[in-house]
Write a structure and sequence with these properties.
mainly alpha; rod-shaped
C-alpha cells in the first residue's frame, strides 16, 4: 500500500488544485471588469452579452445603410441631420464591436480555465486509477468540508496558476 499513498496524495492535491482554480478563477473573471456585475453563470452571460452586441451592431449597420440611401436621394439637398445620424450609427457600431471583443476575451479566459480544471481532474483520476482505486469508490467517497482533503492549497500557488492562464 506504500505505492498507492503517494499517488493518492498527488491525485487529491490535483483535485484540490482543480477546485481552487475553478472557484477563484471564475470569481476573478467575473470581477475583472464591471461589464457583467453580479454574473453567476459566466459562459451564459458572456454569450448573452455577445448576442446583444451583435444585434446592436446589425441594427446600427442597417440604420446607417438607410441613412446613406436617404443622403443619395437628396440630390445635393440639406444633409447635415442625416450625416449626424449616420455618425451616431457608426459610433454605435464601434462601441458594440468593442463590447463583443470584451465578451470574447472573457469567453477565452473562461474556456482556458475550464480546460485547466479538466486537465487536473483527468490527471487526478488517472493517478487514483493507477493506485488501485476504483472509480465507483471515488465517486462514493464522502466529501469533506475542506476541499477534497486535508489542507488547502497555498494561495500563492493558486495565484500563479491563474496568472499562467491570464486570469
Amino acid at each position: 500500500m506504500s505505492t498507492t499513498a503517494p499517488a493518492a496524495g498527488q491525485a487529491l492535491h490535483n483535485l484540490r488544485e482543480a477546485d481552487a482554480l475553478l472557484t477563484q478563477g471564475v470569481q476573478r473573471i467575473l470581477h475583472a471588469s464591471s461589464d457583467l456585475p453580479g454574473a453567476t453563470h459566466p459562459l451564459q452571460e458572456v454569450l448573452h452579452l455577445s448576442e446583444q452586441q451583435a444585434m446592436l451592431t446589425l441594427e446600427a449597420v442597417e440604420a446607417a445603410q438607410a441613412e446613406l440611401q436617404a443622403i443619395r436621394g437628396t440630390n445635393g439637398g440639406f444633409i447635415d441631420q442625416r450625416l449626424q445620424r449616420l455618425e451616431i450609427h457608426l459610433q454605435t457600431i464601434l462601441t458594440t464591436q468593442q463590447g463583443q471583443d470584451l465578451a470574447g476575451q472573457r469567453l477565452k479566459k473562461t474556456i482556458a480555465l475550464l480546460q485547466a480544471v479538466e486537465s487536473r481532474i483527468q490527471e487526478a483520476l488517472a493517478q487514483l486509477a493507477g493506485a488501485g482505486f476504483e472509480r465507483s469508490a471515488l465517486l462514493a467517497a464522502p466529501a469533506s468540508d475542506d476541499t477534497f482533503g486535508s489542507g488547502r492549497l497555498d494561495q500563492g500557488n493558486v495565484d500563479d496558476l491563474l496568472s499562467e492562464l491570464g486570469i
